[in-house]
Specification:
There is one protein chain. This protein has 11 helices and 10 strands. The protein has 296 residues and is of the alpha/beta class. The strands form 2 sheets. A 6-stranded mixed β-sheet has the order 6-4-5-7-8-9. Helix 2 links the parallel strand 2 and strand 3. Helix 1 runs parallel beside helix 2. Bound molecules: adenosine monophosphate, zinc ion and fe (iii) ion (2 copies).
Length: 296
C-alpha cells in the first residue's frame, strides 16, 4: 500500500483524518506557551492528541493533561532528555511515562540541578566580560526547574545588554562563544532505561538534525522503541528515509512539530500532523513492553 501523500506534506491532511502532535514544549522548559495556551492552539489546529515533551522535566504534564481533557484532546505524557552515544548528542523522547515515578523524579531533579548550575556558570562568564547580568534575573524570568540558554538570552535582551535573542546567542551563547557551557548528557542507554522503568517508550527525536544515522541500529539494539520520522525540520525525503529505517529496525514511527511557541520565531504547532494510526501503533508497542502498566 502506498502511504498517503499527506504524511509527506505535513498539514495537508485528507479530510476526516485525525492527527497528533507528539513533540511540544511549554514555558516549563524553553517554550513560551503555558500548557493551557498550547492545548488551546492544538485544538485550533484540529489536533486529536498531543504529547508534552519539555526538556528534562515533567512539570507541565499535570496542567497539560487538565487542559487537554477540557478540550477533548487525548494527552500523552512525555519529556525530552539530552543524551549521548559514542560522542553524538541525541535527544530521547520518553512517552507514556509515569510522571509521579520516584526514580524518574529523582533523576530529573539531578538534571535540573545541573541546568541551574550551568546558568550560574554562564552568568559568571558574562559578568567576567563586564556585563552585570544577575543570575536571579535569569531564574525569575525562567520561572521553571529546567532553565537553559534561551532564558539567559532573554534576560540579556530584557536587561538591554543585547538587542535580540539571536544577537545574544551570536555574541555569548552559541557553541564556542564565551559564555557557552556544555550541557550535561546522560548516556543514551541510561536515558532509555530510565524511560522504560518509568513505564515509557524511548523514541529518538529529530534524527535528521543529529547527523548520526549510523548509530540508530545500535540504539535499537540497546532498547530504542521508536523514531521521530516526521519533524518540522525534516524534508519529505528525510521523512521517507526514516520511515523506511524505522520499518527495517521494527521501530515505532512518531512525529511532532517541536513547537517552542514564539521562542524560535513563529509557533510551529499544526505544521506537522501525525496520522493517528501511528499513535495507535505506538500504544500497541507500549502495551507489549515488559515494563508496561495498563494505559488507562
Ligand atoms: P540549552 O538546552 O540550554 O542548550 O538550549 C537549547 C535551546 O536554545 C534550544 O531550544 C535551541 O533551539 C535554542 N537555541 C540554540 N541556538 C539558538 C539561536 N541561535 N537562537 C535562538 N535560540 C537558539
Ligand atoms: Zn527546546
Ligand atoms: Fe530536541
Ligand atoms: Fe524539542
Amino acid at each position: 500500500m502506498n502511504p498517503s501523500p499527506s504524511i509527506f506534506r505535513p498539514g495537508a491532511g485528507v479530510s476526516g483524518e485525525l492527527f497528533a502532535d507528539l513533540h511540544l514544549h511549554t514555558l516549563f522548559s524553553d517554550g513560551t506557551f503555558s500548557p493551557e495556551e498550547l492545548a488551546r492552539r492544538g485544538a485550533q489546529a484540529g489536533l486529536a492528541a498531543m504529547a508534552l515533551t519539555d526538556h528534562d522535566t515533567v512539570e507541565g504534564c499535570a496542567r497539560m493533561a487538565g487542559a487537554c481533557r477540557t478540550l477533548g484532546i487525548e494527552f500523552i505524557t512525555g519529556t525530552e532528555l539530552t543524551a549521548e552515544f559514542e560522542g553524538h548528542e541525541v535527544h530521547l523522547l520518553g512517552y507514556f511515562i509515569d510522571t509521579q515515578q520516584p526514580r524518574l523524579l529523582d533523576e530529573i531533579k539531578k538534571f535540573q540541578a545541573v541546568r541551574q548550575e550551568r546558568v550560574l556558570e554562564m552568568v559568571s562568564r558574562i559578568n567576567k566580560l563586564g556585563l552585570p547580568l544577575r543570575a536571579e534575573t535569569v531564574f525569575a524570568l525562567a520561572n521553571c526547574q529546567s532553565p537553559g540558554r534561551p532564558h539567559v538570552g532573554r534576560a540579556l535582551v530584557q536587561e538591554g545588554f543585547c538587542a535580540t535573542l539571536e544577537a545574544a546567542f551570536e555574541r555569548f551563547l552559541k557553541k564556542g562563544r564565551p559564555a557557552w557551557v556544555p550541557k550535561y548528557k546522560i548516556s543514551a542507554a541510561d536515558a532509555m532505561e530510565l524511560i522504560h522503568q518509568a513505564g515509557g517508550l524511548a523514541v529518538m527525536a529529530h534524527p535528521g538534525l543529529n547527523h548520526c544515522d549510523h548509530i540508530i541500529p545500535q540504539l535499537a539494539r540497546d532498547g530504542l522503541d521508536g523514531l521521530e520520522c516526521f519533524h518540522s525540520k525534516h524534508s519529505g525525503t528525510q521523512s521517507r528515509y526514516y520511515l523506511a529505517l524505522a520499518g527495517s529496525l521494527h521501530l515505532a514511527v512518531t512525529g511532532g512539530s517541536d513547537c517552542h511557541g514564539f521562542s524560535k520565531g513563529k509557533p510551529l504547532i499544526g505544521g506537522v500532523k501525525l496520522p493517528l494510526a501511528y499513535l495507535e501503533k505506538l500504544k500497541e508497542a507500549r502495551r507489549a513492553h515488559p515494563a508496561a502498566a495498563p494505559l488507562h
